[in-house]
């Protein structure tokens, strides 16, 4: 079903048009919800700290989490205490809580645990973003809401929408006829559009690129450049929104890849993959936090960083710093 939907949403054919009535119903429901927030029928929470929302219009991976990582690192280097508010996978139980090193990805979500381990900043999860924000306020100067564009119960000071340059907005339709949670016109209402990779254009958009920084052994913690695997045949596994982007990146750096795509957030069945003796198994950093047991001798994860053009990066960071000072 997932494969069929992806081909329908991002393919060139016109199949799946029978889903359009359901998309109209989805549009009506979400439109009424936005209207209720706009007129005050549904309440919003205004934080005592500046809130920057990083999200997307389409379901699946667009690169928002690498952007959150980049923003957190850059702002922390400028002296800000940054916290991250996330829903956690499936709401992670509902109640607001801080993520810790002892947590399991199944309990708090793979993305939230990865963010905490990578950045060493407070990460709070809750089914309602506002509850996570409240928990972070006493310890942070500024809060980044990861994937919070459609959570209108939380007031925000800056909105950033991330678009996958390769996939763009797909067929431009709303769920389930297309991949969009909101109409394409919503991009015209955000403060900044960030495009991850070439292929999609939007007036005033900032271009972002994802680059592999290092490859880390799950067993020993050894760190190697990705170039050390060039020319080798490897297994690659990815349980992310767009596994194809990860596999393509490995090939671009000279690796021969046996692909093992999985649904987003799926468990990693290391034992189910015959890794051919010493043949390496590469995965994303998000997938690696789910791997605590099993034979990890040949398992590695690829640490990825976001890169943004210098003047555009400076302008964005200055804008957020001005919010924090205010």
Q: Can you offer a commentary on this structure?
A:
With 326 residues, the protein is of the alpha/beta class. The protein has two domains: 2-208 and 308-325, P-loop containing nucleotide triphosphate hydrolases (Rossmann fold, 3-Layer(aba) Sandwich), CATH 3.40.50.300; 210-306. It is built from nine helices and 13 strands. The protein has helices at residues 2-10, 20-38, 64-77, 105-108, 110-119, 129-136, 243-252, 285-288, 310-325; strands at residues 51-55, 82-86, 97-98, 123-125, 142-146, 158-164, 192-196, 206-217, 223-224, 233-238, 256-261, 281-284, 299-308. Strands 1, 2, 3, 4, 5, 6, 7, 8, 9, 10, 11, 12 and 13 form a 13-stranded mixed beta sheet that branches. Helix 7 links the parallel strand 10 (233-238) and strand 11 (256-261). Helix 3 (64-77) runs parallel beside helix 5 (110-119). The model has no long low-confidence stretch (mean pLDDT 91).
SSE topology:
Elements: H1 2-10, H2 20-38, E1 51-55, H3 64-77, E2 82-86, E3 97-98, H4 105-108, H5 110-119, E4 123-125, H6 129-136, E5 142-146, E6 158-164, E7 192-196, E8 206-217, E9 223-224, E10 233-238, H7 243-252, E11 256-261, E12 281-284, H8 285-288, E13 299-308, H9 310-325
Helix pairs in contact: 3-5
């Amino acid at each position: 079903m997932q494969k069929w939907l992806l081909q329908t949403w991002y393919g060139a054919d016109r199949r799946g048009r029978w889903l359009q009535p359901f998309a109209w119903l989805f549009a009506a429901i979400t439109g009424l919800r936005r209207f209720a927030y706009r007129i005050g029928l549904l309440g919003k929470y205004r934080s005592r700290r500046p809130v920057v929302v990083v999200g997307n219009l389409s379901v699946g991976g667009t690169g928002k989490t690498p952007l959150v990582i980049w923003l957190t690192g850059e702002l922390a280097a400028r002296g800000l205490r940054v916290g991250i508010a996330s829903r956690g996978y499936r709401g992670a139980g509902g109640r607001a809580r801080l993520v810790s090193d002892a947590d399991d990805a199944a309990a708090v979500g793979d993305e939230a645990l990865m963010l905490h381990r990578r950045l060493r900043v407070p990460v709070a999860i809750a089914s309602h973003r506002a509850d996570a924000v409240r928990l972070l306020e006493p310890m942070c100067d500024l809060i980044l809401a990861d994937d919070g564009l459609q959570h209108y119960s939380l007031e925000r000071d800056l909105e950033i929408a991330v678009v996958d340059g390769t996939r763009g907005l797909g067929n431009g339709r709303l769920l389930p006829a297309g991949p969009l949670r909101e109409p394409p016109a919503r991009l015209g209402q955000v403060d900044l559009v960030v495009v991850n990779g070439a292929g999609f254009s939007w007036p005033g958009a900032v271009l972002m690129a994802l680059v592999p920084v290092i490859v880390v052994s799950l067993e020993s913690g050894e760190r190697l450049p990705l170039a050390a695997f060039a020319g080798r045949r490897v297994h690659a596994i990815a349980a992310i929104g767009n596994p194809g982007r990860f596999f393509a990146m490995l090939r671009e750096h000279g690796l021969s890849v046996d692909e093992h795509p999985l649904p987003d957030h799926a468990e990693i069945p290391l034992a189910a993959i015959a890794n051919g003796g010493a043949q390496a198994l590469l995965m994303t950093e998000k997938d690696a936090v789910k791997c605590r047991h099993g034979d990890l001798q040949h398992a590695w994860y690829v640490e990825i960083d976001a890169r943004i053009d210098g003047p555009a990066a400076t302008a964005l960071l200055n804008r957020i710093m001005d919010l924090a000072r205010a």
